[in-house]
Structure formats: structure tokens, C-alpha cells
Backbone:
């Protein structure tokens, strides 16, 4: 009997040795596809970087200012120091805000935002003076936290003067002018609105001896800044109960007093 032919032997060997491995050309195709995808990804990333940093389209062309009342928009822009043509993405908004507050102490806070594609917005909040201190013919504005933030040639309308009559005593050495100024500013801020309109001078004799001079020759002994809310409510009630009184004492809000007529 004749043995198997060569073709039959080849088929049997193929069945016994299992399926064929993927052809070499398939691995090459997958490798090429991976290289193409990596190149495409690199092009996209490079394009994005160029768009943000190198292209002329996403660069600062305008700096807008809002919220300024006393300061001018030009002053704010110049203090911000934002150069036109700078890529928007490279601007440090925190540094711009810090620079503005340092160069313009009148600014209490500022919000620096990118306005894509070509703008920067500066939204400033200015400090509001609650007291003014005379200084050699000029006047220093003081805000509600006792911060001296601006020197002006004329006192702002409706802002009471701060008069420090503190002697070189133990109290002054203990608290200091800055601390006493903060206390006076807080008192001016806590006084009822109806009374605040009539304040002409806030006098500070010591930490616990702060008084107010009002229009019409009236005065208020406030004491220290402690229990400010209770003192404000007591003063309002006392003025309603004794509308013709000239002197009021709320330094101890549980035992107020009024005198004069």
C-alpha cells in the first residue's frame, strides 16, 4: 500500500503544530499605526502650546478696569503693569493683584480675571474712610480697620476727624498709636447710622476713653471698643428717650446716662 503524499504530510504537520502565528506584516501595521497616533498627539500638544504662548491671537490687547471711584482707570492700569502683547496664559493674576495693592494702598481688594481671547479685567474695591487725621496741612484717610491708606489735600466730606489726646503714659506704651487708631475706627464704624452722620470728631484719651463730638454741641462718652453693638443700641434708645440732652454716656451700656438740655 502506498504511503501518504507530500501534500498530505504537510497538511497533517500543520494540524499537529497548531494555528499559524500572526504574519509579520500585521505587527508592522500596528507599529506604524501607533507611531502615527503618537505623532498626531505630539502635533496636537505642540499646536496647543503654540496657540497659547506663540500665536498672536491669545495675547493681551486691552486691560479693563471697574469699581474705581477715587482712583482713575489710568492709575489702576499703570499700577497693574500688564504689558500689551503678553500671552494671556502666562500672566500671574495673583502677582498682579498683589502689585496693585502694594502700589495703590487705597485698593482694599482686587479681582484679576482673564477675559479670553484678548483681555484682562481688573475689578477693584477701594477702601472707605471712616476717619481722617490731620498731618501738616494735609489729611490722612483711615478705613474701618484702622489702616491709613491715603493722604489727600482736603478732608473728605462727612468723614469725622480723629483727635488723639493720649499722653505718654503706660497706656500709650502698652497699646500704641496704631492700636488706638484701630479702636477709634471701629467705634466710628459701630455707631448707629443716624448718629454717625452727626459725628464731627472722635477723641481718644486712652484705650477705654473714646468719646464722640456731635453737631449742636452734643457729645457721647463711648469708653472702649468692647460691647460696641450693645452701646450702639443703648445710645439710640437713650437719644430717643432724652432728645434734648447734650451729653450721653454709654461706656457702661447697662447703666447709661444723659445730661444737659
Residues:
Amino acid at each position: 500500500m502506498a504511503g501518504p503524499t507530500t501534500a498530505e504530510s504537510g497538511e497533517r504537520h500543520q494540524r499537529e503544530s497548531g494555528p499559524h502565528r500572526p504574519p509579520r506584516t500585521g505587527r508592522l501595521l500596528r507599529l506604524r499605526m501607533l507611531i502615527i497616533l503618537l505623532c498626531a498627539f505630539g502635533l496636537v500638544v505642540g499646536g496647543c502650546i503654540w496657540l497659547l504662548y506663540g500665536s498672536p491671537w491669545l495675547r493681551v490687547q486691552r486691560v479693563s478696569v471697574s469699581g474705581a471711584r477715587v482712583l482713575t482707570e489710568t492709575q489702576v492700569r499703570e499700577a497693574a503693569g500688564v504689558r500689551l502683547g503678553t500671552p494671556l496664559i502666562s500672566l500671574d493674576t495673583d502677582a498682579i493683584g498683589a502689585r496693585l495693592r502694594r502700589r495703590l494702598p487705597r485698593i482694599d481688594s482686587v479681582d484679576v480675571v482673564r477675559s479670553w481671547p484678548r483681555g484682562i479685567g481688573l475689578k477693584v474695591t477701594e477702601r472707605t474712610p471712616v476717619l481722617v487725621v490731620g498731618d501738616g496741612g494735609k489729611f490722612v484717610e483711615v478705613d474701618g480697620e484702622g489702616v491709613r491708606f491715603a493722604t489727600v489735600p482736603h478732608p473728605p466730606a462727612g468723614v469725622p476727624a480723629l483727635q488723639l489726646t493720649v499722653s505718654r503714659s503706660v497706656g500709650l506704651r502698652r497699646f500704641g498709636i496704631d492700636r488706638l487708631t484701630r479702636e477709634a475706627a471701629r467705634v466710628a464704624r459701630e455707631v448707629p447710622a443716624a448718629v454717625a452722620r452727626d459725628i464731627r470728631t472722635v477723641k481718644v484719651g486712652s484705650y477705654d476713653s473714646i468719646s464722640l463730638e456731635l453737631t449742636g454741641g452734643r457729645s457721647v462718652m463711648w469708653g472702649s471698643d468692647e460691647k460696641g453693638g450693645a452701646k450702639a443700641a443703648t445710645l439710640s434708645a437713650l437719644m430717643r428717650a432724652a432728645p434734648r440732652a447734650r451729653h450721653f454716656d454709654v461706656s457702661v451700656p447697662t447703666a447709661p446716662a444723659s445730661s444737659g438740655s
About this structure: The chain has a mean pLDDT of 85.
